[in-house]
Specification:
This protein is an all-alpha fold. Among the domains are: about 35 residues; about 90 residues, Serum Albumin, Chain A, Domain 1, CATH 1.10.246; about 160 residues, VPS9 domain (Glutathione S-transferase Yfyf (Class Pi), Chain A, domain 2); about 30 residues. Helix 11 packs antiparallel against helix 12 and helix 13 crosses helix 16. It is elongated and about 190 Å long. The N and C termini lie far apart (about 175 Å). One of its GO terms (molecular function) is zinc ion binding. This is Rab5 GDP/GTP exchange factor. It comes from Chaetops frenatus (Rufous rock-jumper). It is found in: Cytoplasm; Early endosome; Recycling endosome.
Length: about 500
């Protein structure tokens, strides 16, 4: 049986929705007016989430308070028992045991609070859960996420109270970002940058942490936060990052014919050690896409750049300069064609710690990579010292730059490779000859058409200047011996006469 207040609420709800309400259904315990679910202890889905979130936050807060209390007890016990070694009251193992027991008790209490109602059968609970999606916020975390979370907790323990504050701020930021999925990626980036700045300021001003420890702590915070947020903020569907990735990949594939000599790259891959450095640089720039943390992606760019500097140094027998580094980096990007290049650049720009991008060698190498990509997107014939005709033919695949001559090969090159290069050169020459003949034939055809048009124009001009005056045809003369009726003045016809001899 329902109480009078519950019946009034139920009737009011049925009148609003225009439906019949079965009395076996229960309203939400919280009194929000919605119907509760027996599987959720009589709460509606919205109130269940709120209660679960409150219980979870309360559990986290109590865990931190317990950890602080046990830490103080351990410090007091250690201070009081310095004189005698056997008088220690709390050890680290006992601290872990007490914390585990306390946490198990609290988790059991929360589970009991949200277990299915005893009045509803197990079968009915399964049907209810199958009909409505579960509001549980637990997700199966990946192995890497679990590992990073454990490493982050172990790290912040070394900071004691500042570490506890860092952990609270990170959990609060993650909970806030989980409710801001609808924001644009630029707004989420601003939230992350503001969070980095606020945490760094709190460590410096409130907790007086040295700058070197602040930098290390911010690296761990970035690693923890972005590992959890990676699948939501990397190459989101609301942006055109994927479209840019495909455009850059297509552009690099079209530029496969570019040689180091065209870019003035001071690297000789004939040297085995230099060739190994080039392969390592390409591997590092490709490996960037497999990392989740912006700092780790920057580390891949830095390693790639250092291999490039070593390759230049070995080739030239002197330290490399910035003028040598950028063309070589462009060549490495063209040769490696890294996957999702634009998405990785945008991800680093949006969510990396700003202090790392604005200072240090990581920021310098990242800036050069952005310049290299911009150069590739705008690469033209003038940049490679080529004619526009040759550049267009290379881009369309009609021909390719001339291969090495047979006399420039090393002695250990097999005969088949030499013959192949000669054949390619011969085909290239034949292709150029054919294109030249076709071009001359088209030019001759155009000259003939122009000559015909010129003659026609000249004739038209002459006719226009000297027009022809064509007179009408004159009337035909009548025969002499015909009857001349119209003109009587003509003499009569001659009559034959006979003369006597």
């Amino acid at each position: 049986p329902f109480s009078s207040s519950a019946r009034r609420k139920m009737n009011l709800k049925s009148e609003r929705r225009g439906i019949h309400v079965d009395q076996s259904e229960l309203l939400c315990k919280k009194g929000c007016g919605y119907y509760g679910n027996p599987a959720w202890q009589g709460f509606c889905s919205k109130c269940w989430r709120e209660e679960y979130h409150k219980a979870r936050q309360k559990q986290i807060q109590e865990d931190w308070e317990l950890a602080e209390r046990l830490q103080r007890e351990e410090e007091e016990a250690y201070a009081s028992s310095q004189s005698s070694q056997g008088a220690q009251s709390l050890t680290f193992s006992k601290f872990e045991e007490k914390k585990t027991n306390e946490k198990t008790r609290k988790v059991t209490t929360v589970k009991k609070f949200f277990t299915a109602s005893s009045r509803a059968g197990a079968k009915k609970a399964e049907i209810q859960e199958a009909k409505a999606p579960s509001p549980s916020i637990h997700r199966q975390a990946s192995i890497e996420t679990d590992r990073v979370s454990k490493e982050f907790i172990e790290f912040i323990r070394t900071y004691q109270k500042p570490g506890q504050d860092i952990y609270k701020q990170c959990k609060l930021f993650l909970d806030t970002m989980s409710h801001k999925r609808d924001l644009s990626i630029e707004e989420q980036s601003e939230c992350a940058q503001d969070f980095y700045q606020n945490v760094a300021d709190r460590l410096q001003t409130r907790w007086k942490v040295p700058p070197e420890k602040v930098e290390k702590a911010m690296d761990e915070v970035e690693k923890y936060i972005m590992t959890r947020q990676y699948k939501y903020v990397f190459c989101p569907e609301t942006t055109d990052d994927e479209k840019k990735d495909l455009a850059v990949q297509k552009r690099i594939r079209a530029l496969h014919w570019v040689t180091p000599q065209m870019l003035c790259v001071p690297v000789s891959e004939e040297i085995p050690e230099v060739s190994d450095m080039v392969v390592k640089a390409i591997t590092d720039i490709i490996e960037m896409d497999s990392k989740r943390v912006p700092r780790d992606k920057l580390a891949c760019i830095t390693k790639c750049s250092k291999h490039i500097f070593n390759a230049i140094k070995i080739t030239k027998n002197e330290p490399a300069s910035a003028d040598d580094f950028l063309p070589t980096l462009i060549y490495i990007v063209l040769k490696g064609n890294p996957p999702r290049l634009q998405s990785n650049i945008q991800y680093i720009t949006r969510f990396c710690n700003p202090s790392r991008l604005m200072t240090g060698e990581d920021g310098y190498y990242f800036t050069n990579l952005c310049c290299a990509v911009a150069f590739i997107e705008k690469l033209d014939a003038q940049s490679l010292n080529l004619s526009q005709e040759d550049f267009d033919r290379f881009m369309t695949g009609q021909t390719s730059p001339k291969k090495q001559e047979s006399d420039s090969f090393s002695p250990d090159v097999c005969l088949g490779v030499k013959q192949m290069c000669k054949s390619l050169d011969l085909l290239s020459q034949l292709n150029e000859r054919q294109e030249r003949i076709v071009s001359e034939a088209k030019k001759l055809e155009k000259d003939l058409i122009d000559w015909t048009d010129g003659i026609t124009k000249e004739v038209e001009d002459i006719v226009e200047k000297y027009p022809l005056d064509i007179k009408p045809k004159s009337q035909a003369l009548a025969a002499i011996d015909s009857e001349n009726v119209e003109n009587d003045k003509l003499p009569p016809p001659l009559q034959p006469q006979v003369y006597a001899g």
